[in-house]
Amino acid sequence: MHVNTGYQKDALPLVRQYVETFDRCEVIVAPSGSCVGSIRHQHPMLARAYGDERLAERAEAAGRRTFELSELLVDVLGVDDVGAFYPHRVTYHPTCHSLRMLRVGDRPLRLLRHVEEIDLVELPDADVCCGFGGTFALKNSDTSTAMLADKMRNVLGTRAEVCSASDSSCLMHIGGGLSRLRAGVKTVHLAEILASTKAAT
Fold it and tell me: Among 30, 51, 103, 181, which residue carries the largest CB count within 10 Å?
């Protein structure tokens, strides 16, 4: 938020806090592509921009140990099937930061394809932004609303019961729009689907 709104120097204490908090952790996982993207790319950049090379190096080291959930499961742990059970028709929205900054590719879909009894349907124009973009939705509300309308039209066209994604911000945006339409489509984070079992459903 600080970087997006031009308050870069005010973000430095957050970079330092992240580095110090997770300094002793071997692996850090976040259920958010945008957060991991910020940690890997913005943290070192900010530290260098304000002349703190030592902090930049520590931030880079922390970034190398920080993974988005699907990256951790597929790349680090070598797991495609977590034993989940989710008997619903689901479509997946790949978020901008996970696609373009982290390049997670099809890792979330690989995980979803192994979920027992899921009916996974392809989302048309899946790689098109939903219109949230952090403060973009506030600064450019008309454009954001138009982008959301396109995304919702594609979600509804799949006849899915659930729209999933790996960023809560996108799910909040899409979910808010769908609830205003009273469309009956729920938004559910990828982590929630992967955590579902026969006993839980």
Answer: 30
